[in-house]
């Protein structure tokens, strides 16, 4: 009997959900990551920087829109939790689902456009430093927005679970912690079974039915939040990975530059060594030449002196 009641309530909720108006939300079109990006290595440098400034400004505007969406999502969560109007809550849920989808697409677009800017080649100098600083700043703001979005979703996930716990205790005030945990987290589908048992034992069918609808709605909200958190975690990981790749590229470039400088210094050092060796050999050769010349001069002087002495001796004998 209780399971029949649960099935009837599910069918009623689905019928009500199908009649909800989607409101005034429209699916936006986002700029392509390649449409507004000019190759930094081609064309006039002024034109390239002008295109860069235009794109980075557009990205910053997109991040502002992303933060505005987060604020609207938080507001819709709050309205859902504070409202007791079932029809209004269904409409809020539909608007929330649409807005979450738009925000997801916008976040992916921002990530891709930032990565496209980081991949642009640029000539070393002031322009390259400006590009890097502005791109790093935009990425840091996007990371802050992602972290804020994650925190908003975590906070409301906790509040939705608290709401489920309160509604379940309306049906079963003496519920054990294990039963509460099973219903709140809907572990292995155990929440429905426990609710069916609680409904069959409850004497307040009207309140129990309303509590069941509330729990089902909050479970749908929690599942949507879980999905959003998974997407945000992946998006955050992609952005951080992009930072690591860029840092590794910069490290590799620095190593390559250092290797070129070392190679050039080594080549110059070898050339200087060759010149030093040649100079040393030339100096040694000159010293040997000087030594030999000195020996020859000494020999000549010795011969001259010997001849003079011999002549003097002979003259003395003759006298």
From TrEMBL:
Q: Which intervals of the chain are annotated as region Disordered? A: 1-43
What's a BP term from Gene Ontology annotated to this protein? vesicle fusion
Q: Where in the sequence does UniProt note compositional bias of the Polar residues kind?
A: 24-33
Subcellular localization is given as: Membrane
Principal localization reads membrane
The answer to whether UniProt assigns keyword Membrane to this entry is: yes
Keywords assigned by UniProt, alphabetized: Coiled coil, Membrane, Transmembrane, Transmembrane helix
List the GO terms this entry assigns under cellular component, sorted alphabetically: endomembrane system; plasma membrane; SNARE complex
What is the name of this protein? Syntaxin
Q: Which organism is it from?
A: Hermanssonia centrifuga
């Amino acid at each position: 009997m209780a399971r029949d009641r649960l099935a009837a309530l599910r069918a009623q909720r689905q019928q009500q959900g199908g009649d909800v108006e989607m409101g005034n939300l429209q699916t936006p079109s986002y700029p392509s990551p390649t449409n507004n990006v000019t190759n930094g290595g081609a064309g006039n440098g002024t034109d390239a920087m002008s295109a860069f400034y235009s794109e980075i400004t557009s990205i910053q505007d997109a991040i502002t829109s992303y933060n505005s969406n987060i604020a609207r999502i938080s507001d819709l969560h709050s309205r859902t939790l504070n409202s007791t109007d079932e029809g209004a809550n269904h409409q809020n849920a539909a608007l929330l689902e649409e807005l979450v989808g738009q925000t997801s697409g916008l976040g992916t677009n921002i990530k891709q456009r930032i990565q496209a800017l980081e991949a642009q080649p640029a000539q070393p100098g002031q322009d390259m430093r400006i590009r890097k600083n502005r791109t790093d700043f935009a990425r840091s703001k996007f990371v802050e927005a992602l972290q804020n979005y994650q925190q908003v979703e975590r906070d409301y996930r906790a509040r939705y679970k608290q709401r489920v716990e309160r509604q379940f205790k309306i049906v079963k005030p003496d519920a054990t912690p294990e039963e509460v945990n099973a219903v709140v987290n809907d572990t292995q589908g155990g929440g429905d079974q426990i609710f069916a048992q609680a409904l069959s034992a409850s004497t307040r069918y009207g309140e129990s039915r309303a509590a069941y609808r509330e729990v089902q709605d909050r479970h749908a909200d929690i599942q949507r939040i879980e999905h959003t958190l998974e997407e945000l975690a992946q998006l955050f990981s992609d952005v951080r990975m992009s930072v690591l790749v860029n840092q590794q590229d910069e490290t590799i470039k620095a190593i390559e530059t250092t290797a070129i400088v070392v190679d050039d210094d080594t080549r110059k050092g070898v050339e200087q060594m060759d010149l030093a060796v040649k100079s040393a050999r030339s100096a040694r050769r000159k010293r040997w030449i000087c030594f030999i010349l000195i020996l020859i001069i000494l020999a000549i002087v010795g011969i001259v002196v010997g001849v003079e002495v011999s002549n003097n001796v002979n003259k003395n004998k003759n006298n």
